[in-house]
Structures are given as C-alpha cells and as structure tokens.
User: Fold this.
Amino acid sequence: MRVPGPIDFPAEFFPLPLASRFHVPFVDLTERFRNIFNSNLRDDRLSSPDLSGMLNDARTPLIRPCFGTAASDTRIDMATRPQFPEEQSETGDFERQEDAFRSWVEDDQNSPHPVSPGRYHLYISLACPWAHRTLIARNLKALESAVGVTVVDPVRDERGWAFRDGPGHSSDPVNGFQFLSEAYRATDPDFNQRVTVPVLWDKEKKIIVNNSEDDICRMFDGPFSPLGTATVDLFPENIEAEHARVSQFIYENINNGVYRAGFASTQHAYEKASRALFAALDELETRLSQSPCLFGAQPVEADWRLFCTLIRFDAVYHTHFKCNLRRIIDYPNLQTHLTTLYHLPGIPQTVNFDHIKRHYFITHNDINPTRIVPIGPTLSFL
Assistant:
C-alpha cells in the first residue's frame, strides 16, 4: 500500500510487553522503529495497520527483539526470513535436522543389506560438502566399479534436488526419478522433512539404506573396502578416540558452523556462530603448524571433513554466508593443507566450482535475492 509520507507511529502502536523487552525507554523505542522502517522502505510506505498485521503474523519474521545482557546494550536485532523455517530456533539459530535413514550395509549375506558389488548406488550433489565427502571416500577407496554415482542438478528449487541432464549432472539412470524426493517417498511414504544428499540407494530392495555422510564414509572404509583396491585407512584404530573428538569439533564449529552463520536469522545468532567458526579455524591453524595433516603425515577422514568446507570457503562462505573475518588464504597452514589434499590423485575431479557457486548463489534466494553468481575469486591452487 502506498501512502503519501513517512509512517508516523503513535507510541501506543507498540504494546507494552514488546517495548519492555528492549533496554531502551518506551519513547525511544517508538522513534527507533519509525526511523528503521522509514529509512528502509524508500518509496513503498506501510501504514500503521498494515505493519501491525505483519508484526502479528508469525509467518512474517520482520522484527525480532534481541536484547543484550547489559542494560547499556540498546541494539535492536532485525530478523531475516529463515532459509529453512522448520530448522530455526526462536533465537534465530539454525538447528540442522537429523538424518532420517541410518541402516547399514554389512559384510554378512544374511543381513538386510549385504555388501555386494553393483548393488548400491550413490546419489550426490557436487555442490554439497556433505555429499562431496562421500564421493571423496568412494574415490580414495577405489570403489568406482563397485558403487555407481549420479549427480543431481546443483540448482535446487522448492521441489528439491532434481535429476536433469546438464554439465556435470544427469538424469537418473537407476530408477528414472525426476526428483530425489521420489527416493525418499519410495522408502517412507510419510516422510515430510527436508530432502538431503547424499543418499545410498539399495537397487535390489529399491529403498534408501542411509542418508548420513558419516555412516556412508564409514561403510566405504569398512564393509565396502574389500571391493576396492586401495589400502587407504580413513579411520585408523590407533587414533579412534581423538579422531572422533576432532571430527566432532570440526563438524560443530566449521562444517556446520558456516551454515549456522549463513542461515542465522538474527545478528546475535550470526555473530555467535561466526566467532566460534574463526576460533576453531585459528585452533586448527596452530595444530597444522606441527604436521602436514591433522594426525601426522597422512590424511584421515577428519582431514577430508575439513577439506570439504575449506575448498568452498573463499569462493562461497566468505561472502555468501558472511564468514568474512578472514579467508582461508590468510591462514598459511590451512591453505597449504587445502592445496596438498586438492592435488592428491582422484580429488580434483570431485571439485566442481561451477556447481558449488551456482548452487549457493542461485538456490539461497533469501540470502542472495538477485541470484547473481560472482565470477571470482581467483583461487591460486587450481
């Protein structure tokens, strides 16, 4: 609705319970809201009744108060629309959903999913860091002939991940699915959560075995291992406990940390995630000053877990997710680690920056409404 001039909010427009949540005088609160809206709406002005309706509509996260611990903190935190509303807390934190399918392929012909060459198929996106890690594990274990793979279109819309023919992605040769959601519904007709990659599919039973990248990597390193020719050990037993601790640290603060920063819908949630992210990167920078990899000379699963975030960091997370205190190239040891792993055999072909950038900058239209894909940065290690 257009009205002739700026909004003139009366003090009584703001209910007292809302006003009492800010550490500012009631009159100051009214003035702050009036200035915020009139400075941002430009030519399109909202009347008080229009705005009142929006504020009372829970589906319109236009404003959310975020108040500090000190009485002097007068910041008003403007909330943004969450990327995935069902995975957003009341305080604006992104809370990732749990993986839905956690069955296991076993080296036992009597199990529901016995290991067998050619029986299982991997559905992935080259854009997704979680799926990327499973592809790396498949290549490192030389399982290309034992486990097939299909790459989805990196551009995802409201219908989810799609199978389309294009550069670096294709239609589904196994089931003829048009969308990955069909695999989820075939496995569980009542599934109503977000459809994610990777997916390990049982071609014989025609169901999803597992959609957890952690589990899939362990299966490739375990029961699938005899089907390949590689001797790489991604989960050495002699470092099991410390490896698990470091992997969890990387997941919470770095792998998921960039998403918690990028998908935060309040300033407070964003800053909390960002500061934890860079504190973790600082810690790993110090650790890598002692050895080329996290546990010595050879990379283990935790190194690849880290790699999948580092490889996307300067190209996407630094700008798109506002993780911009530093770039990875500003960390000498992390950059060396990234470059070394990238040039190992079988790894460069798992990295597709066209898919990575188009996915994030086009799919996340709430974060990047123009959907313009940046042409940079220039990455020296490529």
